[in-house]
Description:
Layout: E1 2-5, H1 15-20, H2 28-35, E2 37-38, H3 40-50, H4 54-64, H5 69-83, E3 88-89, H6 90-102, H7 105-108, E4 112-113, E5 116-117, E6 127-132, H8 140-143, H9 145-149, E7 155-160, H10 166-169, H11 177-188
Parallel strand pairs: 1-6, 6-7
Antiparallel strand pairs: 2-3, 4-5
Amino acid sequence: NLVCFTTPVDFSKMEMFQAWADKRHFKVDQMADAMGIVPASVVTSGFDALRPTGRVTGTLRLWDNLWNDEYVKQYRMMDRWGTETLPLAGAYFKETIKSLMWENGLYTGKLKVGSKKVDLGKITIPLLSVVAEHDHIVPYAAAHPLMDKVGSTHKEEVMLKGGHVSLVAGPNAVKRMWPKLDQWLGERST
């Protein structure tokens, strides 16, 4: 069994990231070579830029709910997830930008791991692809092509309410995603 959560396949559909990583303007080699290690703050800034007011409105909502212990607990879980991003090795960052963002290698079949091409069609085991209805990081158009590319005859795509992170980590994940995952795996596990 293979379970994928909000997995980007067609990187051309990640339009904001495409605009920021436009090779006419984004000198990824120069940046990564100068830094060596791309700081976590660079990565989180990219995600924050997708929703520029997100952190401010989140903090305001927290202020309004400071006496709600459950709200504060959920806020801290989500905030911790978003702020504990790891730095990236410069070589990895360059390869990701070039192979996935610029060449769209996973979608076009040009992506290589080592010397071998990645062929999603060779995935023949049962597949569950879970996508989030309000995912601002990996839009549906970027994730859905997985269903067409894999060779699995037993594959299912499930769209659940939520965003990229709240799909698996938010308070509603326990009600929406985890029961679905438990049911799907339970039917296929021995």
